[in-house]
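Hi support team,

I submitted a single chain yesterday and got back a structure, but I'm not sure I'm reading the token output correctly. Could someone confirm the output below corresponds to the sequence I sent? I've pasted both exactly as they appear in my results page.

Thanks,
R.
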Amino acid sequence: MMENIIVHKAGTRGSADHGWLKAKHSFSFANYYDPERMHFGVLRVLNDDYVEGGMGFPTHPHDNMEIITIPLEGALEHKDSMGNKEVIKSGEIQVMSAGTGIYHSEYNHYKDKALKLFQIWLIPNKRNVTPRYDQMTLNVADRRNKLQQVLSPNPDDEGVWIHQDAWFSMGTFDAGFTTNYTVKKPGNGVYVMVIKGKVEINGVVLDSRDAAGIKDKQEISIKALDQDAEILLMDIPMNIN
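Hi R., thanks for writing in. Yes, this is the structure output for that exact sequence:
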């Protein structure tokens, strides 16, 4: 394997099966611990969750973490100590800056169908900020054969924003489509999760739910090998403040 790329195959992730919740952990989380998989730069958690209808996570605390939730199928019902009561659907993105501390609950909004989502935690570049919440509806059509930016450090930029020099993009591609991604900030790395299909990243072939972490590269090459292949690309600092 090339020195500047690590590959996390889907089947090597940590697993948790609580009946109502089936989770895959890209990095150490809860009862899954792997000293080789604690984080990739500031990316601390990438959980791939399946939640049965009507089930979810009761009220629990967070602090000093940037938490991003991307529903892939279904809808998530959210309540928090800031007074927010929201439903986040597939095609939307939610962000919370936990900062000095928040409590929240998350449940499958529907009783009769499953919820599938990614929950992502990034270590922030500022501690003890005032907690905040935001969500946004994304135009999914804007990611056909292009990378649609869905998150950045800048409130005036495309997508939601967080307290970190990170940029997230999502893309859905035709088979054979190729593109290059330029890293936004010198020293940042890129972690690519294949949501669906088969994709070649910097010459490495990845299947559905495989991921690759790339550092010390300014350009990332992407080639879709399947029709409607989907990726989530995270451009993130490698150094933790």
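A quick pointer for reading it: The domain at 5-237 is CATH 2.60.120.10 (Jelly Rolls). Let us know if anything else looks off.

Best,
Support desk
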